[in-house]
Amino acid sequence: MKPTYLFVFFLLLGIGLLCQLPTAKAQAPANKLSPCQLPRLVEGPIALGFPKVPKLAPSLGQLNMTVLFVDFDDVPASSSTDSVFAIINPLVPNFFAETSYGRLQLQLQPHHAWLRLSRPSAHYGEGIYGFETHRAFIQEAVDLADAQVDFSKTDVVLVLSNPKAKAIPLGPTFKVQDPYWQIKADGASISSAITSGYDLNYWGGIWLAHETGHTWGLPDLYHFGNEGWNKYVGTFGLMGTCGATAPGYFAFERWVLGWLYDAQVLCHDAGELLIEIEALEKPGGIKAVMVPIDSTTALVVECRRKMGFDKNMTKAGALVYVVNTALEGGSGPIQVKPGQPGATEFLLEAPMAQGDSYTYGNIYLEVLEAKGESDRLKVVVK
Asked: Which residues form the domain of 320?
């Protein structure tokens, strides 16, 4: 049976807006991590939780991404491949070097030649919405380049369409775990591929960082619907929007991908805890406190600071959110919880400052001290 094909594209328009080791009264022993390692329950190649979705692209070590450039009879390329490649490089490798704390190295391997596809651009613009037609789009580009490109070590294929091709509106990800349906070249079966669309012109290279998240199985965090697309995470986290003012992945996502070690996540399920967490944007230290709520849900608090790719966030502080791995992408598997009432539509004021407190069910959080690159917290589970 052909597997369900889940590809991802943005329904986002006009988005101008769009923490040192702990000092603790009670430390969670190592064997208490399991309640916070929420299980991956959603079937298919897009799902949040432990373990990471198998048989897709690697999220640790080196990820080899072969980059192809395609144009069309009706929209021939007038720009150099170098100028198009500059949209994604070095921005995207730098983003992952920072966000993964150096644990992922994205190697972009461009084939600098325009490959002319056989059909008009509109044909491929329609094709991105179907499993077999999107696969055919990618396979055609791979076949055209195969004589000059060695795909035997390719983890992900990136097909960059001529950015002037308006008939290809979006840039989705193709991913499939069954080798039968994977992209074939040089004896290799490639599980993941990405194609760009006209939206590359306004999202820029950060678009690729979002789509690459899907090659590891990360779900979309924005709302699938006509209204309130930003209601779950606002402009936090790149899987919520390419217009994120704090695009760094959430601590839970980084833990699933292996970028955070178990020792950097403290799982606390009872009593009072005093803990200092380090800024998520810098390497080292405790990065998050998690309080399990049930078998699929936990409350998480992490420290966000205006550093690196998160430098444009409106307000720094302790960011609180709920993870529910039973929920699919588009339905809120991560939901930011504003620490104070009156938060803006985009949750820009959600991070908690020094003196702020927040109660969620039987969980009480208080920011005892906000330092330059860390937050000292009280966490009480009744």
From this structure: 30-48+231-381
